[in-house]
Design a protein that fits this description.
InterPro entries: MFS_trans_sf. It is a multi-pass membrane protein. Its main location: membrane. With 218 residues, this protein is mostly helical. The chain has one domain: Growth Hormone, Chain: A (Up-down Bundle). Helix 4 packs parallel to helix 6, helix 5 runs antiparallel to helix 6 and helix 7 runs antiparallel to helix 8. It has 11 helices and no strands. The two termini are 34 Å apart. It is elongated, with a radius of gyration of 20 Å.
């Protein structure tokens, strides 16, 4: 899940917040740190509680909220909001990440569990490969439309093709505010795809069988 949203955030940091590429990488760290913490927490909690389904449902609740909050980011969003939203997103993704694998190992036979885990690994690779490209297409299309709306005197197609570092110099100080607003709106509209996809995960989580990992197979 994280790979569907994170690739767009460096664009937000560099184009909208006007930070360097290295600093934009640092600003994404709250997601990674929260994800790591939640993975460790969920692994321990799952072994204590015995059930994986609650953690999967919790992921399907927290991540749509976090992704929805990301769609509200504005040009002048304060750093504290960015850190909180990223941390919530990372924690939400990690809390139920191990659930499907635990379910396969608990419910399926040893032979079928290997097949189930292989299918999940395929889906984890196939999904981002498809939808990151879809998100990029949406972003490019919305960016052209939004730039034409907010900066009608500039050639929007040329802005899309140029590097983020050249944006400020190309548009000029008089058009910079409109260009930043166009980038911001295009990114936030792209995040709607992530919100929709993550909401769909609730269907699978709610339909999971409640089986304890402590229960021995017979």
């Amino acid at each position: 899940m994280t790979r569907r949203s994170i690739p767009q955030m460096p664009i937000y940091f560099q184009a909208v917040k006007e930070v360097s590429a290295s600093k934009s990488g640092i600003l994404v760290l709250p997601t990674v740190v929260a994800l790591t913490i939640s993975l460790l927490f969920s692994g321990s909690a799952m072994s204590i509680v015995g059930y994986y389904t609650p953690f999967m449902v919790l992921t399907s609740i927290l991540t749509p909220i976090a992704t929805g909050l990301l769609t509200t980011l504005e040009v002048d969003a304060v750093l504290a909001r960015l850190i909180c939203y990223h941390a919530l997103f990372g924690f939400g993704c990690g809390i139920g990440y191990q659930g499907p694998q635990s379910a396969a190992q608990t419910v399926l036979s040893p032979h079928d569990a290997a097949i189930g885990i292989a299918l999940m690994q395929f889906a984890n690779s196939f999904g981002p490969a498809v939808f990151v490209s879809v998100a990029q297409t949406i972003f490019t299309g919305r960016l052209v439309a939004d730039l034409e709306a907010y900066v009608p005197r500039l050639n929007a197609s040329s802005l899309v093709k140029m590097g983020l570092a050249d944006l400020k110099e190309h548009v000029g100080p008089e058009n910079l505010a409109g260009a930043l607003l166009g980038y911001d709106r295009a990114l936030m509209q792209t995040f709607y795809l992530g919100v929709g996809l993550i909401c769909l995960s609730l269907v699978g989580s709610a339909g999971m069988e409640w089986r304890s990992v402590k229960q021995k197979k017979v």
